[in-house]
Amino acid sequence: MSNEIGRAWARVRDEWRARLEPGEQATVLAWAAFTVTFVALRALTHWIRAGHGPSGGGMSVGGKHFHHYNLGIALLSTVAAVGLRGTERQRRHPVAAIAFGSANAMIADELALLLDLEDVYWKTEGRESVDFAIGLIAAGGTIVAGIPFWPHARRALRNL
């Protein structure tokens, strides 16, 4: 069974390289990273809010709560610097696309705070619609960005 799975993933990797241009690969990776990071952040913040993890509700710097959108902005700035000054190989590296998607998720997850300049993260009016919309955009973006790839991946996995 392990060899079959390995062969199937090798076929998917081959289809990935054959069917998608580097820019398309980067788009799929960025959208997938956005989706995974967004879901992970939501799960982590709910876990912390339930009383697990660090006391005081998350990270703090100098006694003040440190919002993860700050990490997103720093990561997005790093990706921009690579885009401006990096080599072609660095700009096309999959980590750049993954970092871009993850950074945007960190920022979008706290969009209500950024829009209202008020910490409404846990208030119903500040989260329900944003969570739904961003989750839908993330999942839809991943599907749409991979349209050229998905039929070939399905065919490659059919023999599993």
Brief write-up:
The chain is mostly helical. The protein has helices at residues 2-19, 22-49, 68-85, 88-92, 94-109, 111-116, 124-145, 150-157; strands at residues 60-61, 64-65. The chain has one domain.
Task: Give your account of this protein's structure.
This protein has 160 residues and is mostly helical. It has one domain. The chain is built from eight helices and two strands.
Order of helices and strands: HHEEHHHHHH
Hey, roughly how much beta strand do the residues contain?
under 5%
> How many distinct domains?
1
The portion of residues assigned to helices is: over 70%
- Please count the beta strands (DSSP E, at least 2 residues each): 2
Largest sheet strand order: 1-2
Oligomer: single chain
Helical run tally? 8
Largest sheet: 2 strands, antiparallel
| Backbone CA Rg | 19 Å
Overall form: globular
Which stretches of 5+ consecutive residues score pLDDT under 50?
Answer: none
What is the overall pLDDT average? 83
Q: How far from one another are the termini?
A: 9 Å
Give the topology.
Elements (H helix, E strand, L loop, with lengths): L1 H18 L2 H28 L10 E2 L2 E2 L2 H18 L2 H5 L1 H16 L1 H6 L7 H22 L4 H8 L3
Antiparallel strand pairs: 1-2
Helix pairs in contact: 1-8, 2-5, 2-7, 3-5
